[in-house]
Specification:
Elements: E1 4-7, E2 10-13, E3 18-24, E4 34-41, E5 47-54, E6 60-62, E7 70-75, E8 80-85, E9 94-102, E10 120-121, E11 125-130
Parallel strand pairs: 2-11
Antiparallel strand pairs: 1-3, 3-8, 4-5, 4-9, 5-6, 7-8, 9-10, 9-11
């Protein structure tokens, strides 16, 4: 069972930056079809997709509300990923969750946006942006 461990959350003022990291407890066997993603949940709201990275080629995918501000990248040494968050806004506040999943042949990149498609999840890390 793969365990995902997030780190890097905290309190920051609006306009500031944070860097989240996610490390896997072990190497996923099927790196060729691995996708890792970040999701977040704000108080009183449903969870939402933030960003994802496809392990095979490093292709990144972003939600509209973080495009241009956040950057997701693989961390080959930790079989994990990072999320650099710049120009943070109060509405970015929430618990950020790391997720990983295997997306086999025939799966489309549009599937990466749905939390139900991922098999493993971290415990979450709190990000609070003060206005």
């Amino acid at each position: 069972q793969v365990q995902l461990i997030e780190s890097g959350g905290g309190l920051v003022q609006a306009g500031g930056s944070l860097r989240l990291s996610c490390a896997a407890s072990e190497r996923t066997l099927d790196l060729g079809h691995l996708v890792m993603g970040w999701f977040r949940q704000a108080p009183g709201k449903d969870g939402e997709f933030v960003a994802a990275v496809r392990w095979s080629d490093g292709m990144a995918y972003y939600s509209d509300f973080v495009e241009g501000r956040f950057t997701i990248s693989r961390d080959n040494a930790k079989y994990g990923m990072n999320l650099q968050m710049n120009s943070l806004k109060a509405e970015d506040t929430g618990v950020y969750y790391c997720a990983s999943g295997t997306f086999g042949y025939g799966r489309q990149s549009g599937d990466y946006f749905y939390g139900s498609e991922y098999q493993y999840w971290g415990q979450g890390t709190q990000v609070t942006v003060s206005s």
